[in-house]
Write a structure and sequence with these properties.
With 186 residues, this protein is mainly beta. 10% of the residues lie in helices and 27% in strands. The chain has helices spanning 10-24, 141-144; strands at residues 39-41, 45-47, 49-50, 54-56, 58-64, 71-73, 85-89, 113-115, 120-126, 129-130, 146-152, 154-155, 177-180. The strands form 4 sheets. A 4-stranded mixed β-sheet has the order 2-13-11-7. A 3-stranded antiparallel β-sheet has the order 1-5-9, with no helix packed on it. It has a 3-stranded antiparallel β-sheet with strand order 3-4-10, with no helix packed on it. A hairpin with a 3-residue loop joins β3 and β4 (54-56). It is globular.
C-alpha cells in the first residue's frame, strides 16, 4: 500500500516558517511605549556602542509646534537652527543615581529662534558619554543607562540671551526612552 502525501500550499509553509521564526527569535531590548509628548524620538530604545574612549548613541527627535502661537527657543548662536536641550532621567529611574550622558553646554545662548504654528524642527541629540580619566566622578554603566527624556529649551516669548521663561516641562519634553548597555559579543 502506498502512503498518501497531502500537499501543503507554498504560502502556508511560508507563513508557518515566518511565524515559527518570529516566535523563536530573541527580542530586542524593549523600550517604553510611545506617548503623546510634543517631542518625539526616532526610537523608544537606544543601545550604547563602545568605542575606544566613549559609549556612543544618538537620538533623532522631532518637535512640531502645535500650540497655535509662535514658540521661541534658546540656541547657541544665530547660525545654529536647533534648540538647546538637556537630558534628564525619567520614571522609574528619577530617584536613581545621577545621569552621566550628553554634553555640557559650551556656548552662550544667542538670540532666540522662533517656530511658527505648524513649523517643526528635527535634530540629532548625542546620548552617549566620554570615559572619565579622573575618579571624581567616575561614570559607570549605571550612570549611562536607564529611562530618560530630552527637554528642549522652548520659551514663552522672545529673549535676548539666556533670560527666557521656559514653557512648562510637559510642553517641551520628549517621549520616555530607554538607553541600554552595549550588547555583549558571543
Amino acid at each position: 500500500m502506498r502512503a498518501v502525501r497531502k500537499r501543503v500550499p507554498r504560502f502556508a509553509v511560508g507563513v508557518i516558517l515566518l511565524t515559527a521564526c518570529g516566535r523563536a527569535a530573541p527580542r530586542a531590548a524593549e523600550g517604553p511605549p510611545w506617548d503623546d509628548s510634543p517631542v518625539q524620538t526616532d526610537s523608544p530604545v537606544y543601545t550604547l556602542r563602545r568605542t575606544s574612549n566613549m559609549l556612543d548613541a544618538t537620538a533623532t527627535l522631532r518637535y512640531v509646534n502645535r500650540t497655535g502661537r509662535p514658540v521661541h527657543y534658546l540656541r547657541c548662536s544665530p547660525r545654529r537652527p536647533e534648540p538647546l536641550h538637556s537630558i534628564v532621567r525619567a520614571a522609574p529611574d528619577t530617584a536613581r543615581i545621577p545621569l552621566g550622558v550628553g554634553v555640557v553646554r559650551a556656548c552662550a545662548a544667542g538670540p532666540t529662534g522662533v517656530l511658527a504654528p505648524g513649523d517643526s524642527v528635527v535634530m540629532r541629540v548625542w546620548i552617549g558619554s566620554i570615559d572619565q580619566r579622573e575618579p571624581d566622578p567616575r561614570y559607570t554603566l549605571r550612570h549611562r543607562t536607564g529611562y530618560m527624556r530630552i527637554l528642549l529649551d522652548l520659551c514663552e516669548g522672545p529673549a535676548r540671551f539666556s533670560d527666557c521663561t521656559l514653557l512648562p516641562e510637559a510642553q517641551r519634553r520628549s517621549n520616555r526612552f530607554r538607553v541600554v548597555p552595549p550588547s555583549e559579543q558571543p
